[in-house]
Amino acid sequence: MNPLAFAPLLLVVLLGLRSLRITQQGNSVLVERLGTFSRTLTPGINVVVPFLEKEVSRQSLKERVLDVPPQPCITKDNVAISVDAVIYWQLVDHFKSYYAVLSMETALVNLVLTQIRSEVGLMDLDQTFSARQAINDRLLQELDAATDPWGIKVTRVELRELLPSPGVTAAMEKQMTAERRKRATILDSEGEQEAAINVARGRAEALVLEKEAESRAVVISAEATAQQQKLLAEARGQAATTLAEVLEKHPTAAEALRLLLAKDWMTMGEQLAQAKAGSVLMVDPQSPASLLAALKDLQQAS
């Protein structure tokens, strides 16, 4: 068999293999037909007509990171600082990015540098450090709007470093040192003042508590004395009532009471012998109660 007979078949197979294009997931491929945009290949196996169509651009649709080199900028108060940033972006329209701009990443870097200079120039040096997040947000809005015609979506902007010149850095360090010393002095004086106030407040509270305790003790003592007198009066009244009831129920008890009084008379005589000169005992022999009271007065006098 002549080998040349298989030549057309082999050519067809080679052309068929050359016409196959495999597009991976997350990628985009642009195809032109005779120099004119034809279509965008979808992920999977695609067929391209040999010699008539060709692949002109293959790009990833995943999010990318663009490192922006340090850029000298001038703040609103004429201070030179160096700023660098990181841009996170994603290709959303492959057709626009390929046909609208010649070098997409170079154009994006130049646009970012221009926007950073513009934003830093609107702020003082102190504001650039304190409002970094605000700068990031404004840069994100402006870059997203500016890159929309290019088919690019800027998802995040982060300023990494804001570095002043060495002279400015030294002056800032001196200022920060002086500020810390000032704050330390203020805090020390406030602490001493607070301590003195606490000591004075403690002494005043101690005096108040002491006076309250003394007042409470006087009240308690008076209440105890009043209660004691009340109990003694109740006991005397009850004793007199009991004695009257006994004398009323038992007439012979009066004779026993007299015998007891006679015994007390004898004791009283001994006390009179030892009493001070001029002591006089005035009693009613018919009144046992008056006799007992007189004896108690005599004992107290002796």
UniProtKB/TrEMBL annotation:
Q: Which GO terms describe its biological process?
A: proteolysis
Domain Band span(s) in chain numbering: 18-176
Q: Which organism is it from?
A: Candidatus Synechococcus spongiarum
Please verify whether the record's keywords include Lipid metabolism. no
tRNA-binding among keywords: no
Please provide an example of a Pfam family that matches this protein in its UniProt record. Band_7
The source's superkingdom equals Bacteria
Q: Which molecular function GO terms apply here?
A: peptidase activity
Q: Which PROSITE patterns match?
A: BAND_7 (PS01270)
What name has this protein been given in UniProt?
Answer: Putative stomatin/prohibitin-family membrane protease subunit YbbK
The places in or outside the cell where this protein is found are: Membrane
Taxon lineage: Bacteria, Bacillati, Cyanobacteriota, Cyanophyceae, Synechococcales
Membrane topology value: Single-pass membrane protein
What family does the entry list?
Belongs to the band 7/mec-2 family.
Which keywords accompany this UniProt record? Hydrolase, Membrane, Protease, Transmembrane, Transmembrane helix
Q: Name one GO cellular component term.
A: plasma membrane
